[in-house]
Design goal:
Elements lengths: L5 E6 L3 H14 L3 E6 L2 H10 L4 E4 L8 H10 L5 E6 L4 H10 L3 E4 L4 H12 L4 E2 L1 H16 L4 H11 L4 H8 L3 H15 L4 H10 L4
Helix pairs in contact: 2-3, 7-9
Amino acid sequence: MLFPKTKILIIEDHPHYLSGLKNYISKNTQKTEIDCAITGSIAIEKACKFNFDVILVDLQLPDISGIEVIQKLKSKNITSKFIVNSYYCGIFQLSKLLDIGVDGILQKGDDEEEIISAIDQCKKNEKFYSKAIQNNIGKLHDEFRKCKFTDREIDIIKLIKKGITTTQISDSLFISESTINSHKKNIFNKLKVKNSMELIEFCNKNNMF
């Protein structure tokens, strides 16, 4: 009996890491066909054209984020198993990945064996989270309780991300500047940032709002 090949798409823009990852998977799996994409747009095009069993996704890509890639492919009813494999996965990114229903989450630097385990388990319709990610998931609910934002705080964060000043936010939301500053202080304390610039950097890094 001939078993079909497992078709894998690796979305990764670092050439040396991509080459090593491709070689490792090829050597440690049987009947595997591997394709690669170095940008999110190329990945979307390939995933829509070909039927991949598993898609390994880096979150930091040169054009769009890995999260956006996954969301767009899911909106197109792509049934591949999505495994995130990224250097950094903060609590907001982790929460987002769990919300959109990825099948596996790895961090670069995890044991190489976990990559193969993730592919095998996800092919069996099982979820896979590396040991490092499991620890982060364990902390997730406590961290989010501390960082839970009110609807007004979320409105202010979104406007700050757009580079809008306190005076402009006040005019937009019809509340006083002193109230805005009070909300900003609470936001900064929850996220342990010092100012709006650090807030914007934190939001962009964690794909927040």
